[in-house]
Specification:
single chain, about 260 residues, alpha+beta, 5-stranded antiparallel sheet, rod-shaped
Length: about 260
């Protein structure tokens, strides 16, 4: 018991100034790291809708980019996505997913991209580049062209009917007849059909932004509990360092441990 008391006397009282210095350094290191810019984490989310893009296809198309970012190969990442290295260096992780949305006979695919980053400066450029990359996917392009041909064919049929009715209407002299009203109603119905068809095509088969980084970003700061744990960690590290330092410089302390 006497040996333990002597060890603590040498450590805590004889070299009290070293202990005070180490405690001060532990507080200094903690607050320095606390105020570093990497302390805050930005979670950036964007969501859009496009035609025929499954999770598997998106994974295959985006994997080269995510792999470069995970390996910090910013040169090739810049070449793939066309965004400057300074912006890509802020990206910590990038995740994405797709899900199919079925509405009546229409199927569209919504995708979601989530990025964690140390800063969001210039991320509007990254967002535009990601959208362009998705829209250039071979499946998206191929299926869009097929749907566009069908839509234009159906549109032409409706517009031909409207033109035909217009020609008939121009020959009707008495506009107060039931026949004239029937023709006008048929024209209105066809225009509504065309408008509905165009709306569904734009919603299901062209790219549509649901929300972007500007309104899909949240900031996470370190919690108070996390800060307490971090502070205690640094205090413990410097206390151990203080004891090792005194053990090295004080001969009597070494002898107490050896005896």
């Amino acid at each position: 018991m006497g040996k333990i008391k002597e060890i603590f006397r040498i450590w805590l009282f004889k070299y009290w100034y070293l202990l005070l210095l180490c405690l001060t350094l532990s507080y200094g290191v903690f607050y320095f790291l606390k105020n570093e810019k990497h302390e805050r984490i930005f979670i950036c989310k964007m969501q859009g809708s496009t035609f025929m893009l499954s999770t598997l296809a998106m994974n295959e198309y985006m994997e080269p980019l995510t792999q470069c970012l995970s390996e910090k190969d910013y040169y090739n990442a810049e070449r793939i996505i066309g965004v400057k290295k300074e912006i890509l260096e802020k990206v910590k992780t990038i995740l994405y997913e797709c899900q199919n949305i079925i509405e009546e006979t229409n199927i569209r695919y919504e995708y979601r991209i989530t990025i964690t980053a140390s800063d969001t400066l210039g991320f509007y450029l990254l967002e535009d580049a990601l959208i362009k990359r998705i829209c250039k996917h071979v499946l998206v392009q191929e299926n869009y062209q097929n749907k566009l041909k069908k839509f234009e064919k159906d549109k032409l049929v409706i517009e031909t009917d409207i033109n035909r009715i217009d020609s008939i209407i121009s020959t009707v002299k008495n506009t107060q007849t039931e026949y004239y009203e029937t023709l006008m109603q048929r024209k209105v119905d066809l225009k509504l059909q065309l408008s509905k068809s165009e709306g569904k095509f734009n919603e299901n088969y062209t790219h549509r932004k649901i929300y972007d980084f500007s309104n899909g970003t949240t900031v996470i700061d370190r919690s108070e509990d996390g800060e307490k744990v971090s502070l205690m960690k640094w205090i413990l590290i410097f206390i151990i360092f203080d004891f090792i330092l005194i053990f090295i410089i004080d001969k009597k302390l070494r002898q107490l441990f050896i005896s």
